[in-house]
Amino acid sequence: MSRSHLIHPALLIASLVVTSTSLAQDGAVSAAELDWVPRSELPEDLLASCPRGCTGGYLQPGRTDPANQIDPALAEVNAEADSYQLDGEGGTARLQGEVRFTQGWRQVAADEIDIDRATLLFEMQGHITLREPDLLLIGESARIQADTNELVLEQASYLMHDLRIQGSADQVRRLPDGRIFIDNAIYSTCEPVDQDWYFVAGQIEIDPEAARILASDMRIKAGPVTIFYSPRFSFPLGDQRKTGLLYPIIESSGDNGIDYAQPIYLNLAPNYDLSLTPRFIERRGTMLESQFRWLHGAGSGSIDGAYLPNDRGGQSTITRTKDRWFGQLQVAQLAWGGDIQLDYSVASDSRYFADLGNASLESSSQTWLERRFAFDKQGANLDLRLTALSYQDLTDKELRGFRELPRLQLTGQWQAAQNWYLESDLEWVDFSPVHEDTQPTSLLQSDLNGQWIQGSRSSLDTRLGWRFRNAGSFVDLGLIGALRQYQLDNALLSGAGDHPQLQASGLLVDAGLIFERRSNRGQQTLELRLQFLSMHSDDQDQLPLFDTLTPRFSYQTLYRPNPFQGGDRIGDGERLSLGIESGWRSAASGRETLRLGLAQQLYLSERSVHLSPRLSAGLVDPSLFAADDPLRLAAQRGAEELRDLMASRSGIQAYLQLAPSDQWYGRALLDWSDQGNQADYGSFELGYRSTRALTNLAYHYERRSPVFRDANQDNRVQGGEVIEGNVEQLDLSAVLELDENWTLLGRWQQDLTHARPLEVLAGARYDACCWSASLVWRHWLERDDNLLVPEQALEHDNGIFVSFELKGLAGVGERLNNMLSGSIPGY
Length: 827
Hints:
- The chain is mainly beta.
- Helices cover 6% and strands 54% of the residues.
- The protein contains 6 helices and 46 strands.
- The longest helix is centred in the C-terminal third of the chain and has 17 residues, at 630-646.
- The two termini are 62 Å apart.
- 25% of the residues are buried.
């Protein structure tokens, strides 16, 4: 029988946006089964995106006609049928026998279609199939009102290819207002041949206007077993926000026992929301955490809080019966032509994060809380920055000495013709001690009365110079000037006065040559750099130490004009920095496979500027003190610092970076002191990344002086009171996919100095096509207030962490994933 063709421009088939999955109807092929293809038959692009644990994927039939790219609302309708009948002018048209409609990218097939041409009502019977990109609907009968997009589909199954969502329903209805009702619905992301879990609902209502999905009589089933039930369950459509329960957080540790948190999300308005998280901690009690967020105009912010009354203390008596709490305010706002940032945090005690963390706020253990306000405004040549800064110390060691209330900074840059430039930095800061009720630990932070020094500092740094750069060389010539003026509440040293000042000036010459060699295999570069710096300054011993420290000496710090970080000291003397770097870039991959560098500083004159309170106090001769006198240890460290200050050259800085393939990488750093013929710092990393495996091997060493801990308070050095200060650690971690389902993971971080593990974890993850589960055991060192030196008495804690996810629906254990990401690089 010949095919007949009919064009009817009024046909508009409603498309369904259904986040569900399908099970086969009895005796019929479901939408999922129709487009299911075994893994071995998937094209390469779909095979690459096929999830782990899945034996296949969904493949849509291809279309080559030009109409497959046209929006159905703008396209004509083409119909084919074995036969058709027309019942009078404007009456009913009946199409029979393998009826096919195409309208742009939409395709409809049925055994029979009756079209009321007056009312634009389409009634379909038998083997109905509706296709759109990434959507397939199958049903036994359907009714479509073309002018209103109203649709009713009986005995339906559906498939969303990209999301791997498939399902079935007794009836699917779309109303003229766009709402969709699905009766006796089934939803799953499992494969059609293996339904490990599925979602069943008496009715699902999808409201695109309100961007929500409401399920009635909702059950989540694993085979015949119901694992969750709710009479009404609402969740957002797509990524829209919706009031309701979020995924719970479940953990267990030796200190806290079972830790269960249940976040509750409240979508109060389009521009603000609230999260409340009741949290039960077996060995501490019940607490409440909250987070309020808002968006307003050109800004945003959040208020976080947590409160645990009458802590039962866990395994410790330190915080027993105490109220524990935490609060944080964060604001980001554009105002007055600039950018405002506010971050203020406060905790009830120094052990809050070590004991409790924050389940809903995703805060981790930390050593201090920052309180900062900043206003930044940028101009064509001038940048203005106003900050206020303070801290809450969580280490009980008073490491953060001074508040900055406020700091005002004006930075300018001007570029003139012939490569001339001028740079300036004008700053004023007012300092006051954070710990006013404790004694300062450094002579450089105390006044004549032994109390914390406080006051303000005005500074001006300028640089006038000439720069030239091309592909093979660069030159930077600059004149440097610096001025510091202080207004202190009292003098730092006897006879120094409370208005000390500093003037410094110098010459900087920075030049380099870049050589390049190309071949068919790649490109090699050789870079030579020479920097000469001559700085002359006033005596700086009378200046306080507010915000200045010496950064760890590294390849990058070799070329800093000022070796100190902060504004209280300016390096003096004449020095010559020499460096050589080389790199190799592969022509085949475009990747830099090798880079290495070697550098050293030569000191052409004596230096006198330092940050050491031991040198300021003259503690440089250990022989002046008895063997059990703590000052002997201080003098030993002072002697080393004096040796480094008087040295004619720095340590040798070297680095190496390797990337021989897309999978392998390596890094190494070394600071070798030829004065002491030893390594002051060294690190080594080697890693492997592939689609099935991840491994990391790291070694870290840092030389530090021994530390005295006067356990019996007798001010005498006895056995066990001198703790090795060197840091030496070995870190090994790996993630290995055994097959499409099982993954093993682990980490071992060892403190070689004190022969103890810092963290050990081992676990496994199982991935089915539509669900996954992870179980991890962790053994870790409780850091307590230990920031400077590992304490021998620190104890280990143990915990078991679980995560479970129904892919495409819900999961628990997000904090486990966060923990693994922080422990295993690249996880």
